[in-house]
Amino acid sequence: MDPDLQLIFSFIIVITAMSFGLGYVIMKREHAHKERKLELEVRKEEAKAAQSLQANADYRKFEERLRVLERIATDGNHMLASQIEELRSLDAIEDRNGGREKAL
User: Fold this and answer.
1) Which residue ranges does UniProt annotate as crossing the membrane (predicted)?
2) Which one of 19, 38, 85, 104 has the fewest beta carbons within 10 angstroms of its own beta carbon?
3) Is the dihedral of CA 56, 59, 61, 63 positive or negative?
4) Which of 32, 40, 1, 14 is nearest to 48 (CA)?
5) Is 55 exposed, middle or buried (0-12, 13-18, 19+ CB in 10 A)?
6) How many of the other CB atoms lie within 10 Å of CB of 43?
7) Which residue has the higher pLDDT, 4 or 96?
8) Cα torsion angle, 39, 41, 46, 50, sign
9) What whole-number distance in Å separates Cα of residue 8 and Cα of residue 19?
């Protein structure tokens, strides 16, 4: 075989090997970037779900208070004091539970 031909083939093989190596590094970085982006999207969705859960809890609490207030408005005055005390006890319980949740 001609020495020039061997040199050309060697050069082509070296360039090809370097190209594959560089391609592997680029592909690996791109894969890591996509994986990181997916992790961030998952965290974002988890945060949205937690926020939605908190909003639903607040909404349920509001509905419960509204029902109690409607009963107070429609019932006679003899049950008014007990309903108000019930609301106060609910507030006290929620305040205690809210402090525990924040501490966790």
Assistant:
1) 6-27
2) 104
3) negative
4) 40
5) exposed
6) 10
7) 4
8) positive
9) 16
Task: Give this prediction's pTM.
Answer: 0.47
The number of CA neighbours under 13 Å toward the Cβ of 47 is 6
Residue entry with tokens 């680029």: 26
Give the per-residue SS3 of the chain. Answer: CCHHHHHHHHHHHHHHHHHHHHHHHHHHHHHHHHHHHHHHHHHHHHHHHHHHHHHHHHHHHHHHHHHHHHHHHHCCHHHHHHHHHHHHHHHHHHHHHHHHHHHC
Residue 60 to residue 68: CA distance in whole angstroms? 12
Query: Please, how many CA atoms are within 13 Å of residue 21, restricted to the half-sphere of its CB?
Result: 6
Chain centre distance of CA 76: 47
pLDDT tens string 47-72: 998 888 888 888 888 888 888 788 77
